[in-house]
């Protein structure tokens, strides 16, 4: 089915077989169909054998007829399910009802997850029975290859079903790029090690009627929450709920409902895990710590640890919708969205959302209304191991908060998944870029440079990479790598900020272009409103930690990039209950240059302050210049048609 057809706008469109068979979703469905044939075909044809002295056939898997029956049953039912959903995929573009489309997509997601589980059980069951089979039952090894094939393709089927996602058919937005890096913890030698698999996730989709959806999700205790949120939020926002004539109030309502449904559905999805946890706990001796249990309980304890992550995991979420050239932001947690506008005075950087931490006075007021001791909460700074006061998931904190000393006096759930929504921000005539970033990115930079300037520094890095890179993915990844290097170099330098840089969390950066020129579009001249022409200036580099002089090239931008506004923004909030941001804007005065080092500095600073030089004045009281503007003036005068000055500069 056509990717854009998930909205009702294209219902009734013509079916294109070539497009249909090329879609990843369809390919995975067909691969799953073939794998199911292999599994049940192998077992039916060669899965039953008998010895020369026996007339009755028995299952090749340890004579366990249940193993063969399970493999055949799951294979046949998976085969039929694939055919059914292939037919649904063909018919799907004809469905005009938003509710019917939503039910179809949700059922597809649920069925895919269910079959991934069935195949996992089948793989474990068949592999175990094959391993314990008695070789004397099959001295000629009849059907051994078929048995191994059934086991192998049961294993492959787990991933073909698990990877099936209706979002595979949604067209990605080619106006955006993503960069990421996994968490790192440094040892004494500065070598990094990943503490856990990357738990960040992101989405960037283009729906019908020029509706765009972007999201960055920062997870903890596993990836279940971030994967679930990415799937379900897209389903709740891109199934025709939004249309070209939608009002601001309707967008606000749709976003609120989407977060509510995703939160409720995620908590419902862990019911089985809760039931399994209760069953396993009943098998353990009461009143005994897990770490002191005998070895025979180790498997139960290991399984409980896995279930704990599934139950207690959660995610901080920031989502941006662009509808009718208007921008809407919905935020739960500590990820950030920045709108960077190129103006005649320079690059204006505005944070579009608030961080839901104990430093947010609106959040503190909300918690005080629930009867909590906000003074103590501000002192602690974290609840349930997280700084964010809003998050999706985290069953333990939300449903066992009365058991937590810090939250025991609350009259209702203090940790909520209700988003703070800001909009609408008109984008007509805006030149610049939109930034979504996970907490790990700006926290890594703040650890290295101190709090307060991370937004501006990241925006400056992005603007610099726009002039160097040829794709948005390269822009985003280059910035992530630069922040990663700054963080590592600060730790390695042993300076005053090194103690804050022993580790960093997962980092994700999503950049959405709003007409800002990439290097491939306008090399190398920029219009004045987009940053200006870049001219080289040679500056000798000196460091207190390094007495040798190294040539470092800076890019002096003319006209200057001007002031950057660091503030938060809520333009026409749509509901009186949605808090507005009160932080005043602050203007930076020293933003005339973009600094770009050709080698890694000792502290990794982006805007590096040059140490004072002890230069002796000459007889006229002048100091010998240490900045060579020859190349700068040569290019400047050549472009501005000043032949006399050009000859002088030469």
UniProtKB/TrEMBL annotation:
Residues 559-623 are annotated as: Disordered. It is found in: Cytoplasm, Cytosol; Endoplasmic reticulum membrane; Membrane. The chain crosses the membrane at residues 30-49, 69-88, 109-130. The keyword Phosphoprotein applies. CDD domains: PP2Cc. It is a peripheral membrane protein; Multi-pass membrane protein. Pfam families: MARVEL, PP2C. InterPro entries: Marvel, PPM-type-like_dom_sf, PPM-type_phosphatase-like_dom, Synaptogyrin. Signal peptide: none annotated. It comes from the Eukaryota. GO terms for cellular component: cytosol; endoplasmic reticulum membrane. Keywords: Cytoplasm, Endoplasmic reticulum, Glycoprotein, Membrane, Phosphoprotein, Transmembrane, Transmembrane helix, Ubl conjugation. SMART domains: PP2Cc. GO terms for molecular function: kinase activator activity. SUPFAM superfamilies: PP2C-like. GO terms for biological process: positive regulation of intracellular signal transduction; signal transduction. The keyword DNA-binding does not apply. Residues 20-173 form the MARVEL domain. Residues 567-596 have a biased composition (Polar residues). Gene3D superfamilies: PPM-type phosphatase domain (3.60.40.10). Residues 177-514 form the PPM-type phosphatase domain. PANTHER family: SYNAPTOGYRIN, SYNAPTOGYRIN-1. Key adapter protein that plays an essential role in JNK and NF-kappa-B activation and proinflammatory cytokines production in response to stimulation with TLRs and cytokines. Mechanistically, associates with the catalytic domain of MAP3K7/TAK1 to trigger MAP3K7/TAK1 autophosphorylation leading to its full activation. Similarly, associates with MAPK14 and triggers its autophosphorylation and subsequent activation. In turn, MAPK14 phosphorylates TAB1 and inhibits MAP3K7/TAK1 activation in a feedback control mechanism. Interacts with XIAP and BIRC7. Interacts with TRAF6 and MAP3K7; during IL-1 signaling. Identified in the TRIKA2 complex composed of MAP3K7, TAB1 and TAB2. Interacts with TRAF6 and MAPK14; these interactions allow MAPK14 autophosphorylation. Interacts with STING1; interaction takes place following cGAMP activation and promotes TAB1 recruitment to the endoplasmic reticulum, triggering MAP3K7/TAK1 activation and STING1 phosphorylation. Belongs to the synaptogyrin family. This is TGF-beta-activated kinase 1 and MAP3K7-binding protein 1. The gene is tab1.
């Amino acid at each position: 089915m056509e990717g854009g057809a998930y909205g009702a706008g294209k219902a009734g469109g013509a079916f294109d077989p070539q497009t249909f068979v090329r879609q990843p979703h369809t390919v995975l469905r067909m691969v799953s169909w073939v794998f199911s044939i292999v599994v049940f075909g192998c077992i039916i044809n060669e899965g039953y054998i008998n010895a020369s002295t026996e007339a009755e056939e028995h299952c090749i898997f340890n004579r366990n007829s249940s193993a063969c029956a399970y493999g055949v049953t799951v294979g046949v039912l998976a085969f039929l399910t694939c055919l059914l959903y292939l037919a649904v995929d063909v018919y799907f573009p004809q469905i005009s009802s938003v509710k019917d489309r939503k039910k179809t997509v949700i059922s597809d997601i649920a069925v895919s997850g269910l079959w991934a589980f069935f195949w996992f059980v089948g793989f474990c069951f068949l592999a175990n029975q094959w391993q314990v089979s008695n070789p004397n039952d099959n001295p000629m090894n009849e059907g051994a290859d078929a048995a191994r094939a059934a086991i192998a393709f049961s294993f492959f089927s787990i991933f073909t079903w698990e990877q099936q996602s209706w979002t595979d058919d949604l067209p990605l937005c080619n106006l955006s790029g993503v960069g990421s890096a996994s968490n790192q913890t440094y040892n004494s030698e500065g070598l990094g090690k990943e503490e856990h698999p990357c738990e960040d996730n992101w989405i960037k989709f283009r729906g019908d009627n020029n509706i765009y959806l972007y999201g960055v999700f920062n997870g903890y205790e596993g990836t279940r929450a971030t994967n679930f949120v990415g799937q379900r939020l897209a389903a709740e926002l891109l199934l025709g709920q939004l249309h070209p004539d939608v009002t601001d109030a309707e967008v606000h309502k749709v976003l609120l409902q989407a977060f509510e449904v995703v939160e409720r559905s995620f908590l419902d999805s862990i019911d089985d895990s809760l039931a399994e946890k209760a069953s396993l706990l009943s098998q353990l001796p009461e009143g005994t710590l897990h770490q002191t249990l005998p070895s025979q309980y180790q498997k139960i304890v290991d399984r409980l640890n896995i279930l704990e992550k599934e139950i207690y995991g959660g995610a901080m979420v920031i989502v941006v919708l662009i509808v009718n050239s208007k921008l809407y932001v919905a935020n739960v947690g500590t990820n950030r969205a920045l709108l960077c506008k190129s103006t005649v005075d320079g690059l204006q950087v505005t944070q579009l959302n608030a961080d839901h931490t104990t430093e947010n006075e609106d959040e503190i007021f909300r918690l005080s209304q629930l009867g909590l001791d906000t003074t103590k909460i501000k002192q602690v700074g974290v609840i349930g191991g997280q700084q964010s006061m809003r998050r999706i998931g985290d069953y333990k904190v939300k449903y066992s908060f009365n058991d937590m000393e810090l939250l025991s006096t609350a009259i209702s759930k203090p940790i909520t998944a209700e988003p703070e929504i800001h909009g609408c921000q008109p984008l007509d005539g805006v030149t610049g870029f939109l930034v979504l970033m996970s907490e790990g990115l700006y926290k890594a930079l703040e650890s290295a440079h101190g709090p307060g300037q991370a937004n501006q520094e990241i925006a400056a890095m992005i603007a610099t990479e726009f002039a160097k890179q040829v794709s948005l993915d390269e822009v985003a990844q280059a910035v992530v790598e630069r922040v990663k290097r700054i963080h590592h170099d600060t730790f390695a330098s042993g300076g005053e900020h090194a103690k804050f840089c022993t580790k960093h969390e997962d980092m994700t950066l999503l950049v959405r272009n709003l007409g800002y020129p990439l290097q491939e579009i306008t090399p190398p001249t920029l219009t004045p409103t987009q940053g200006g022409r870049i001219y080289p200036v040679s500056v000798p580099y000196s460091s207190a930690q390094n007495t040798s002089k190294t040539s470092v090239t800076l890019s002096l931008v003319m006209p200057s990039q001007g002031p950057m506004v660091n503030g938060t923004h809520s333009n026409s909030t749509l509901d009186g209950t949605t808090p507005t941001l009160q932080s005043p804007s602050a203007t930076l005065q020293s933003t005339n240059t973009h600094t770009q080092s050709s080698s890694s500095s000792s502290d990794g600073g982006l805007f590096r302050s040059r140490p004072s030089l002890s230069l002796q004045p000459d007889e006229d009281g002048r100091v010998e210049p240490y900045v060579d503007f020859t190349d700068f003036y040569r290019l400047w005068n050549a472009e501005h048609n000043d032949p006399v000055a050009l000859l002088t500069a030469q």
